[in-house]
Amino acid sequence: MVTSPPLVIAHRGARSLAPENTLSAARKALDVGADMWELDVAVTRDGGLVVMHDDTLERTCNAREAFPHREPWRVQDFTLAEIKTLDCGSWFVREDPFRQIEAGNVSDADRQAFRGEPAPSLREALEFTRQHGWRVNVELKEQESDALDRYIVEQAVALIQELGMDDGQQVVVSSFNHDYLRAVRTLSPKVPTQAITSKLIPDLSTYLNDLQASACNAKETTWTYKSMSRLQSLGVAFNIWTVNDELTMRALIKTGVQGIITDFPQQMVEILSQG
């Protein structure tokens, strides 16, 4: 079903206002009025599920300083407990990746609070979402072996079920690896799945039906707006990523997409409030 207005989906949380994939970023997204947040899940050395986008810890954590002899600091080479000791917030204050500190949109108190920010486990992220009656898109990062492929899906679904979040209301699972989505459907038929892509998929409507996926999460440049409108008339729902400029947001709103995935949920909410 096409949503009007589109869902505001905070990419890795409100990552323009707080360190990405942290509970602070989730809290900011919730505070500015995002409909849901999107996060990335990786597997640690001891089988933990951690919220982390990159394959390594170097960009968003102080792994180089904390573990100087563990280069290249791959997530899968660290235990969850080790990752939980890292500072995954100071980099944001130091680098101001979206120039929002410079613009005066991040308070002094927030900047201080971000220092020492830990990476959440998937359990913590889901519990935060459940506590606030909110919604989350859980993206499963592709793994390096068949065994880990099975593991990440099985463990993520088991956790969603354990927390009673498998009724299709609060959690959706997405991935670039569409075999993961097939596995999710087998393990938990009620949990919606969404197929991420940056490449054209022929006969997309049939493909999604066969996959039993509820939506296509497409890079903004993958399909033309005309093509998306045609596919939407066939029942395809699109969530478009990653949209950070106002003109594109407004154009996609007119196109009638289901959701817009953005680093600036605060801007998207403001545009929608203008009617």
Describe the structure in your own words:
With 275 residues, the chain is of the alpha/beta class. It has a single domain (7-273), classed as Alpha-Beta Barrel (TIM Barrel). Helix content is 38%, strand content 16%. The protein has twelve helices and nine strands. The protein has an eight-stranded parallel β-barrel with strand order 1-2-4-5-6-7-8-9, surrounded by six helices. Strand 5 (171-175), helix 8 and strand 6 form a beta-alpha-beta unit. The longest helix is centred in the middle third of the chain and has 17 residues, at 146-162. The radius of gyration is 18 Å and the shape is globular. The two termini are 21 Å apart. The mean pLDDT is 97.
Keywords:
alpha/beta, TIM Barrel, 12 helices
